[in-house]
Amino acid sequence: MWKKISNGNQEGAYWAEGEGKVVVLIHGFAEDHSVWEHQTAFLRVHYRVLVPDLPGTGNSPLTHPLSVESMAEFIYAMLVTEGVSEATVIGHSMGGYVALAFAEKYPHLLEGLGLFSSTAKADSPEKVEARQKSIRMMQQYDREPFLRQLIPNMFAEAFRSKQAARVENFVQQALPGNKEPLIAYYEAMIARPDRTAVLKEIRVPVLFFIGKDDQAVPPDNTLGQVTLPAIASVHIFDQVGHMGLLEVYEESNLVLHHFIAFCQRAL
């Protein structure tokens, strides 16, 4: 069911299902809560699953100024609304950046942290330049040409070839809306700091989900981080791109379920 956040400067909505220990699934760039639909349907049988629309997406209005840190505050406001004192927080792509910012400020609320096709590193100069080029493209041509160029490359080539209709369906889902939230997200990602220190200091298990064909967060970017936490669960998938939560959703469901259960036993 849909629930609303109205807590100070935070206003928006999230989807909530299930009972038990709490799991937060944070979507990435050009996505909304529905990107986790397979995982939500599976995990709700075992846990209380909270899936927000981040500010500027879906049922949540864009807030100003927007930053990765302000989106982490949005997650905190959601947990306050739910009366939650502990949760496993998992983020896909940009959602992983938000999860790391949340872990940095609210480590006492964490049972586990999941980086799903994400990284604790800041943007490289080349990545910043690429994002700035994309911002200029959206400013000139709006969001559709940009998304039609971006989204197919988020999937592995093998998946694009065999599941072209599913890729196009995901593109169609992303097209509605205006360019301002996407530009705000890119600006927020450019400004975010390196948070590898969070992984070194964290005392709860950390999940790393890595696709070998991920062009957005290449494996080489992430593999050097998997030894930083005291406890890490590392899963590497062949012929999987940036969208493993859709490309291999059944395997993703099991990875998340086993990780969440492990986090609860590890406390």
Walk me through the structure.
It is a single chain. The chain has 267 residues and is an alpha/beta fold. It has one domain: Rossmann fold (3-Layer(aba) Sandwich). 45% of the residues lie in helices and 19% in strands. The chain is built from 12 helices and 8 strands. The chain has an 8-stranded mixed beta sheet with strand order 1-2-4-3-5-6-7-8. The longest helix has 18 residues.
Top keywords for this entry?
single chain, alpha/beta, Rossmann fold, eight-stranded mixed β-sheet, globular, AB_hydrolase_sf
Helical stretch tally: 12
Structural class, please? alpha/beta
Rg computed from alpha carbons, rounded to a whole number of angstroms: 17 Å
Q: Any low-confidence stretches, pLDDT <50, length ≥5?
A: none
Q: Specify the biggest β-sheet.
A: 8 strands, mixed
As laid out across the biggest beta sheet, the strand order is: 1-2-4-3-5-6-7-8
Please indicate the percent range of residues in DSSP E strands (runs of 2 or more). 15-25%
Spell out the helices and strands N to C.
EEEHEHEHEHHHHHHEHEHH
Number of beta strands: 8
How far is the first residue's CA from the last residue's CA?
A: 29 Å
Number of domains: 1
Q: If classified by CATH, what would the architecture be?
A: 3-Layer(aba) Sandwich
Give the rounded overall mean pLDDT. Answer: 96
CATH topology category name: Rossmann fold
Q: Tell me, what's the shape? A: globular
CATH homologous superfamily (4th level) name: Alpha/Beta hydrolase fold, catalytic domain
